[in-house]
Specification:
With 486 residues, this protein is α/β, with parallel strands linked by helices. It is 40% helix and 19% strand.
Length: 486
């Protein structure tokens, strides 16, 4: 009996004397549920250790490891996701340049992305010099900003739609324009709607020759199927799909439209014709082409929704408007905004709502086909497309289109990383990746709207807790409280 007792006591001593592994880092997030966006599953009760701006270690919070960290965060019952991306953003929207915004006013849009969990954006048109300035200010610790990939000016036809665009006069000018933009440091090219067909083909051929990505609006003169075959890496806003998948109007019908003086009524009747003759078999064939050529789509559903239901959404978004700089508050009104004109015209809003319902179905069908989708908001000139919050709206719209919360979450996390080929550093909560992270108070796999319930954001390893988030937002609100000087 004594021998048995001694042996048991000795075993206890040996176990007690075993040294635990010690891990040191800068930030420890304790006992958090990690959302695996790749599998759509939850990895519960994990300790996530950061060293500087990288994830050093992730393992079960089972007490078997000693941690040393300057900052320790108790995240029990909370959920960690990778930082979100807005893959169609215009923080320096040329459409709004007419309001003469000050540079500092534009600067104040940057932190709004981050405090709302958006740690990366794809800037889809603006001043590339300003983007480069934002990057430098962030690097120097003078501005809280997301990671930015940018295209610089839009590539449009000889008479561009917006200020700041590069109007390409002929196909022969394509090489010179592309070379100059690459030399300026753009990350990709952005095609716009008025680019003539032959010029588009010249730009796409030369870009392909140089292995340089081009994305954007499918031009009016190019069907989406052809744009896909030329290698347009992503198509935006679902543009021109309705036209390609509807019947071709007869000459008589087009003549009757030309006889109508009111251009809005002409547009309404043409869209009504296309909506009424939209062919699911044609769209199914088109989606097959998108899949074959690995074309990404950024539908910006939330932008279409906000435009269609502007009046209802304005009352819901009243508290968010206070965070906008004065020039943008002014531009998001019917007095100044091109998108808010003609809303009193008969049938105008009804057509917008019918289009939106079709876009939901388009996205549902694309997702079922396995077409890669990207979350984008078109924040900038478009009213009520708010910095940061717009991504939450877009993810909700994706679930309204039939995506699961896990599928929707991918469009703003893993998919952007795959799109930019930076999945070794971004896109998932994984060891060795950059610590751009968001901790939520609810499970986004149960309800995608839990992405709105932000507990804290980690940008490049720096923790922005709920107190700091409130301070930043309140500071921005105060700075933007003065009236527009235009």
């Amino acid at each position: 009996m004594k021998k048995l007792f001694f042996a048991a006591f000795l075993g206890f001593l040996l176990i007690s004397c075993e040294k635990k592994e010690t891990l040191s880092g800068t930030v420890l997030v304790e006992d958090v549920h990690v959302v695996d966006v790749e599998t759509g599953e939850l990895v519960s009760n994990q300790n996530v250790l950061l060293q500087g701006n990288k994830i050093l270690d992730i393992r079960a919070a089972d007490g078997k490891v000693n941690y040393e960290a300057r900052t320790v965060i108790d995240a029990k019952g909370k959920y960690m996701i990778p930082g979100l991306w807005d893959m169609h953003a215009h923080p320096d929207d040329p459409e709004v340049w007419r309001m003469n915004p000050e540079q500092q006013e534009k600067d104040r849009l940057m932190p709004l992305f981050v405090v709302n969990g958006v740690t990366g954006i794809r800037d889809m048109g603006g001043d590339i010099k300003l983007v480069q300035r934002w990057r430098e200010l962030y690097k120097d610790g003078k501005l809280l900003a997301p990671k930015i990939y940018a295209c610089g000016p839009l590539l449009d036809g000889p008479n561009p739609m917006w200020d700041g665009s590069v109007g390409i006069n002929s196909p022969e000018d394509a090489k010179k324009v592309v070379d100059s933009l690459i030399a300026e440091g753009v990350d990709f090219l952005k095609i716009y709607s008025l680019l003539p067909r032959e010029t588009y083909l010249a730009v796409s051929a030369y870009s392909n020759e140089n292995g340089f990505p081009f994305v954007g609006h499918v031009p009016y003169t190019v069907p989406p199927s052809e744009a896909a075959k030329t290698g347009m890496k992503s198509q935006e806003h679902l543009l021109e799909i309705l036209k390609e998948c509807a019947d071709t109007p007869t000459e008589e019908f087009m003549a009757s439209l030309q006889a109508i003086d009111d251009r809005i009524e002409r547009s309404n009747q043409l869209n009504d014709f296309r909506l009424s003759t939209f062919s699911n078999s044609k769209s199914d064939s088109l989606y097959g082409i998108f899949k074959k050529y690995n074309i990404w789509h950024c539908p910006t559903l939330s932008m279409w929704y906000k435009n269609a239901w502007y009046e209802d959404e304005l009352s819901k978004d009243g508290n968010l408007v206070a965070y906008l700089p004065p020039y943008l508050k002014a531009y998001w009104t019917p007095e100044h905004n091109d998108h808010l004109q003609n809303r009193d015209k008969p049938g105008y809003i009804d057509i917008k709502k019918r289009l939106y319902r079709l876009y939901l179905d388009m996205v549902k069908q694309m997702n079922q086909k396995g077409i890669m989708l990207l979350a984008g908001t078109d924040v900038g000139a478009n009213p009520l497309c708010h910095p940061g919050v717009g991504v939450h709206n877009e993810l909700e719209a994706f679930t309204n289109a039939g995506l699961t919360p896990a599928e929707a979450l991918k469009t703003a996390t893993l998919n952007p990383a795959l799109f930019f080929d930076i999945q070794e550093k971004y896109g998932t909560v994984s060891t060795g990746k950059i610590a751009d992270l968001v901790v939520l108070n609810g499970n986004p796999l149960e309800d995608i709207n839990n992405v709105r319930k932000i507990n804290l954001v980690i940008r490049d390893g720096q923790v922005i807790d709920s107190t700091k988030i409130a301070e930043i937002k309140n500071s921005i609100k105060m700075e933007n409280s003065y009236p527009w000087k235009g």
